[in-house]
């Protein structure tokens, strides 16, 4: 047990020096609010350093078009309350994010499909810039201070919140306002262990069961080992109880456990949510997304007609990955007939090839765990927060920002965007409240 012998007081204490906490700290300090951060790690932004394959996909410019930017952007988010993210995104969207980082000294650059990164293409520079910004503003950051417990005083508004931390310093931290910016459950070695959920729950909040989002799919398929390592351009559909619920196009990766790659990661959330409900989930891969079913049949028939003297395996060379061909032959029941010629293909076998090239179905058994996922679906219930300020309806003076709440975004920079938008909006709301 810790023997707390001293206390440190600030107007605002932010728990968590991740994306949302850092954004909130800079914004609050710029408004003139005495702000400090409590962080369990020995440095700030450990999770940020892992993002975007070490490059940090800060936001996504592809939705920054026209006057309805916030509406278009809000469609990239998921929550039990679908309309919840919009007022936050209206306050601080993509343009404001780009400007904010520019002013901080971190110009962004746009790569494929609107994905925005720091011009250095190094996630570490995002941390460095935040470190400098906090230093410039004299924001104290108490590292190695994991918050174990928060007590809320009913009698003393100035000392409303008391945070007890896991530290050798034997200090308690008191504040008038508290921001909970503790993240979700992904990247477990980045300090996000779900302890923020427990803190919010002990203050009366409800947890919507978290599941991994932006995550790989484990599938049941006998020839996964043979397919492992293949990357192909395709379209993937996720089917729940036989109905297509979402489709994505892009580079699909086959692995020994199942499927990955950007379109699969995008579909991972749907799979996780429905598997948790006990639904039957299938992923269907379209190997020729640029052609209709009729066009695929026409193309194959032409190919088999022109090269009737070649083996069936040879007829696929040139438009299918070579490692895929023996597996397709097995699927069609001719894996044991390597010398079968196109001219001898039966109608039944042709029918299997027609189907499989457009609808190659894999039963999804599970997703990868939080350890491999990039975002958390679920979290603290948004109905217990005021939509445009992110203040708790249950504990006035407590605000939430970032992934800790039940909002998650699509793959492509949208989760960090939520952290920037929510961190900024919460800090601005507090500023308005204090200086009204
Ligand atoms: C591998 C990986 C790659 C990703 N890539 C991208 C990407 O390129 N683009 C994108 O948009 N999103 C990406 N994400 C998602 C993105 O990183 C998160 O959505 C975002 O960091 C969430 O910000 P946050 O502030 O809510 O929480 P976090 O950034 O997770 O920060 C929470 C902080 O709170 C601290 N903390 C937690 N509990 C306590 C406690 N009890 N006491 C004190 N401190 C505590 C943690 O140590 C941590 O520093 C990626 C995620 C992962 C795991």
TrEMBL record:
Keywords: FAD, Flavoprotein
InterPro entries referenced in this protein's UniProt entry, alphabetically: BaiN-like, BaiN-like_dom_sf, FAD/NAD-bd_sf, RsdA/BaiN/AoA(So)-like_dom, RsdA/BaiN/AoA(So)_Rossmann
SUPFAM superfamilies noted in UniProt: FAD/NAD(P)-binding domain (SSF51905), HI0933 insert domain-like (SSF160996)
Name the record gives this protein: NAD(P)/FAD-dependent oxidoreductase
Domain RsdA/BaiN/AoA(So)-like Rossmann fold-like as annotated: residue spans: 11-428
RsdA/BaiN/AoA(So)-like insert domain span: 211-374
Organism: Paenibacillus hemerocallicola
Pfam families membership: HI0933_like (PF03486), HI0933_like_1st (PF22780)
Cofactor(s) the protein requires to work: FAD
């Amino acid at each position: 047990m810790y023997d707390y012998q001293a206390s440190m007081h600030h107007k605002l204490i932010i728990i968590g020096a991740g994306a949302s906490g850092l954004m909130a700290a800079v914004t609050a300090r710029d408004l003139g609010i005495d702000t400090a951060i409590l962080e369990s790690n020995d440095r700030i932004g450990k999770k940020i350093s892992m993002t975007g394959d070490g490059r940090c996909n800060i936001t996504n410019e592809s939705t920054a078009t026209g006057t309805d930017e916030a509406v278009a952007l809000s469609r990239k988010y998921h929550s039990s309350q679908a309309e919840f993210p919009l007022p936050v995104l209206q306050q601080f969207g993509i343009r404001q994010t780009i400007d904010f980082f520019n002013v901080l000294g971190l110009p962004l650059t746009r790569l494929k499909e609107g994905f925005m990164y720091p011009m250095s293409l190094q996630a570490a520079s995002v941390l460095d810039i935040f470190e400098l910004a906090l230093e410039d503003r004299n924001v104290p950051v108490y590292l190695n201070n994991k918050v174990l417990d928060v007590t809320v005083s009913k009698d003393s508004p100035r000392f409303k919140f008391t945070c007890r931390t896991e530290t050798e310093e034997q200090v308690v931290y008191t504040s008038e306002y508290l921001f909970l910016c503790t993240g979700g459950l992904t990247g477990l070695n980045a300090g996000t262990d779900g302890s923020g959920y427990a803190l919010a729950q002990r203050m009366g909040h409800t947890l919507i069961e978290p599941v991994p989002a932006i995550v790989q799919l484990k599938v049941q398929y006998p020839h996964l080992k043979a397919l492992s390592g293949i990357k192909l351009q395709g379209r993937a559909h996720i089917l729940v109880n036989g109905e297509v619920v979402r489709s994505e196009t892009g580079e699909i990766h086959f692995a020994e456990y199942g499927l990955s790659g950007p379109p699969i990661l995008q579909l991972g959330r749907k799979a996780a949510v429905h598997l948790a409900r006990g639904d039957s989930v299938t992923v269907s891969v379209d190997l020729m997304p640029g052609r209709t079913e009729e066009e695929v049949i026409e193309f194959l028939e032409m190919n088999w007609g022109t090269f009737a003297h070649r083996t069936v395996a040879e007829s696929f060379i040139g438009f299918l990955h070579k490692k895929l061909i023996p597996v397709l032959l097995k699927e069609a029941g001719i894996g044991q007939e390597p010398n079968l010629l196109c001219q001898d293909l039966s109608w039944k076998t042709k029918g299997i090839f027609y189907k499989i090239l457009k609808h190659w179905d894999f039963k999804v058994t599970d997703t990868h765990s939080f350890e491999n996922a990039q975002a958390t679906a679920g979290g603290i219930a948004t109905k217990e927060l005021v939509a445009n300020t992110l203040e708790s309806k249950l504990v006035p003076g407590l605000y939430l920002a970032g992934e800790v709440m039940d909002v998650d975004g699509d793959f492509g920079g949208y989760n960090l965007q939520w952290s920037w938008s929510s961190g900024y909006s919460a800090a601005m709301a507090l500023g308005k409240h204090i200086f009204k």
